[in-house]
Write a structure and sequence with these properties.
The structure is a single chain. The chain is α+β, with helices and mostly antiparallel strands and 109 residues long. It has one domain. The protein contains four helices and seven strands, in the order βββαβββαβαα. The protein has helices spanning 31-40, 72-75, 79-82, 88-106; strands at 2-5, 10-18, 27-28, 45-49, 56-60, 69-70, 77-78. β1 (2-5) and β2 form a beta hairpin. The longest helix has 19 residues, at 88-106. It is globular. 17% of the residues are buried.
Length: 109
Amino acid sequence: MIVYDDERKDLMLVEVKLRNAPKETKILIYSRFIANYKEFWNDSILVIVVPCGNILYAQKVSELEAKGEYDATLEFEKFEAVFPRVKKEDLSHFKNKALDIIKASSHPA
């Protein structure tokens, strides 16, 4: 996704990954994905969505190691720290939507 910051007049490439992790300290992302992001989109931001903790976390791809397992509390920032202009009510709304999506994908009809 492309995000435009009208205040800084800047475009950001943002990749969003949904992970049904049991806890925010053990997030699995294939190391080859991170290696590819670093090679081709090193300036992008990776957002991970997990059903626990802060729910939304973000980090610059350039700051990540390609290792496969991540602790969101140590290796990522809270979403609002990377995107401080997102309103609290909007952030709360999207966190709830993310949880709904995770629940729906975990329990097939």
